[in-house]
Amino acid sequence: MAEPQLLFDYTGHLPECPTWSEEEQALWWADILEGELHRYHLDTGEHSVLCFPEEVGCFALREKGGFIVAMRNAIWLADKRGLLVQKVCDNPSNPQLARFNDGGTDHLGRFYAGTFWGPGDYNGALLMRIDNDLKPTVIQCDIQGHNGLAFSHDKQWMFTSDTPNGVIYRTPLDEQGAPGAREVFRQFQPGEGIPDGAAMDMEGCYWSAMFDGWRIARFSPQGEQLAEYRLPVRCPTMVCFGGVDMKTLFITTTRENMDAQEIADYPLSGAIFTLPVEVAGVKKSAFIER
């Protein structure tokens, strides 16, 4: 069985939302707490950084170039240099208590962004969608910390996770991609880790970064664990597929809230890892504006 390997010599604070650019053959990701978007070109090893005025919870590449970026207070369109050019909408949560977190696009090129309820005292977060005409809609509530957004290749299911509550959900989608009633896909017990960011492969399996679990896990369409891959760090945050054949899994990890001793013991916390896999991943659409 293959083992995760370092992508390159880098550690961040809270790397998240890895996103593969097929056009550039490069990996993009956010460092949420540093307010940064990073790009790493695999062939040349070039690493560049764009800086934003607030935390970048999640983002997507735009079909027209640039990014759609969910920051703490609002979702914005940004150009390829990272300059904010148009506000899409405000954060519908209380931005002092809930920043944007995990997000991505569906097969219609619509952008989804969820929030994370900072106080952790109840399920005060939500998931919203930005349509192709830039209309914002809140589509799910009763979440403490949104994560794990992924869409099945057959376009029938949306998967999400609520990390603090240790649960993965799946939600049926109609022909227009409208969500039905969500249902529990898998509930986790203490000691297993809790489900963070995720991605889908072409066999309908769900790959989850198991935060606080030292591992990445692959689950069947029925929720059965099929495989796990151990990591040399405690807290992976998200995975995405990329590479020429979409058979490379990129894994972000964090060192947020770790003390000096843990960082000294596990210095790769915050690094990005790669893992060769046998089944190709589902490609992410760019955000499409009309």
List the helices and strands and how they pair.
Layout: E1 5-6, E2 15-21, E3 26-31, E4 36-41, E5 47-51, E6 56-61, E7 67-71, E8 74-78, E9 84-90, E10 98-105, E11 111-117, E12 125-130, E13 136-143, E14 146-151, E15 157-162, E16 167-172, E17 183-187, E18 194-200, E19 206-211, E20 215-219, E21 225-230, E22 236-242, E23 248-253, H1 260-265, E24 272-276
Antiparallel strand pairs: 1-24, 2-3, 3-4, 4-5, 6-7, 7-8, 8-9, 10-11, 11-12, 12-13, 14-15, 15-16, 16-17, 18-19, 19-20, 20-21, 22-23, 23-24
Query: Could you estimate the helical fraction of the residues in percent?
Result: under 10%
Largest pleated sheet:
4 strands, antiparallel
Order the strands across the largest sheet as they lie in space: 1-24-23-22
Percentage of residues in strands: over 45%
- Shape annotation: globular
| Radius of gyration from the alpha-carbon trace, in angstroms | 17 Å
User: N-to-C SSE series?
Assistant: EEEEEEEEEEEEEEEEEEEEEEEHE
Task: Report how far apart the termini are.
Answer: 45 Å
Oligomeric assembly: single chain
Spans of at least 5 consecutive residues whose pLDDT stays below 50 are none
How many strand units? 24
**Which structural class should the secondary elements be placed in?**
mainly beta
Number of helices: 1
Overall pLDDT level? 97
Structure report:
The protein has one helix and 24 strands. The relative contact order is 0.17. The longest helix has 6 residues, at 260-265. The protein is an all-beta fold. Strands 1-24-23-22 form a four-stranded antiparallel sheet, with no helix packed on it.
